[in-house]
Fold this protein.
Amino acid sequence: MTVKEAIQKRKTTKRYKDGKEITEAQIATLIDAGHLAPSANNLQNSKIIVVKSAAARKEYAQGFEGFNQLNINQSQALFILVGTPWKMEMLNNGQRIYDADIHAYDVSEAKKREFINGIMTYYATFSGYTDSLDIYSSAIQFSFMVLQATELGFDSTPMLGIKKNALEKFLLDKGDIKQGERVNMAFTIGYADSDAPENKMHGRIRVPKEQIYKIV
């Protein structure tokens, strides 16, 4: 399957059905796709929580609105994308920036420190997107992963029906996230129930292309 074919095939699934259980190898492939997603200054500031077992999905589903809970319980896996906000990048004089990327540069430690200071100064002073960097990273990860899921034969559902405060507290209590990290996105994958009325209501509706682009 080409990337174009995956884009054309993927659409949001309202109801799933039972199917062959997702394998560890397939989960690893999906994580690889998210791991390779780009991020600003290679901060790699979005991580992935995979909720696979039926018991765990039922438990974690409580952090979502009711209309998403059934979807989670019917799916093969729930993926929660957690971001590291910029205020956490600033901690310990930018240590996480060093650990994520700068440590591997083939330059002196003094030069590495210069790079870190430059990154911190830029995003603290000039960028209007600083507070959203991790959200963008999660969105790109999501795109990579759902297209990979399509190539693997799974259907998918992006979820914004998140009880954000409750879910973040739950994840913090479980030790899944650190204090200050935040939930940015979530999605499920599984096998679409082609007979479900919710999946039959309409096809993929799109406004005319001329309304969404401009070439200059």
User: Anything to note?
Assistant: Residues 133-151 form the longest helix (19 residues).
